[in-house]
Amino acid sequence: MKISEIFYSVQGEGSLVGVPSVFIRTSGCNLRCVWCDTPYTSWAPEGDDISVTAILEKVSNIGASHAVVTGGEPMIAPAVRELTLGLQRLGLHITIETAGTVFAQLPCDLMSISPKLINSTPNEREGGRWAAQHERLRYQPHVLKQLMAAYPYQLKFVVAAWDDIAEIEVICHEIGAPARNVILMPEGIDHKTLQQRGLWITEACKQHGYRFSPRLHVDLWGAKRGV
Ligand code: SF4
User: Fold this and answer.
1) Is 0.85 topped by the overall pTM?
2) How far is the CA of 169 from the centre of ligand 1 (A)?
């Protein structure tokens, strides 16, 4: 598998925030979010080819109870099922972080789905050459429904502007997602932006019954890799 990094940290986002977890980050993504915070897995994918056996050995040596398979888009990694079967054999709790554009049947204790909003489309970046593909793929309601039916899940939205809230409402209505499964978190890779956006996003959470998530890793370490 093409792996960009494996590291031990605490989960920074969502319902398991703060839980010590080993992160396995696959490289490669079918989307190109304009604000992608891991461009080394999407815009300019890098990483090493590592066998599932070697990954599992490394994970086993770390000795964590929770694993997070993230990306990039892990659901398009050819060996992702083999990897998650191995993690299951090791007895780890498995979270998969996905944009929810591709369905696969695999062992997973929490499908952490982050559907991408209009604010993610790269209209200008690299001359807009990825905009059409991104826009065509980013929202796949039938895949979201499949994932929601097959797995324990959370829907985690990256919010940058107040208008995003109305878009989230439309999506949740369309796919039948209850507010209790919806988590909003601010877009941003520095503490000040997260704090400013967090103040009004928490108001939206109060109005709609959504949950707010910090981005703990950004608050603690800033825009640093491997933490
Ligand atoms: S889906 Fe995730 S990894 Fe892919 S471009 Fe968007 S933010 Fe980056």
Assistant:
1) yes
2) 22
Q: Tell whether 32 is covered by a domain.
A: yes
pLDDT tens-digit series, residues 161-188: 999 999 999 999 999 999 999 999 999 9
Residue 177 tokens read as 């997602």
- Ligand 1 atom closest to the CA of 39, numbered from 1: 8
Tell me, what CATH number does 49's domain have? 3.20.20.70
Q: Which domain holds residue 80?
A: 2-158+214-221
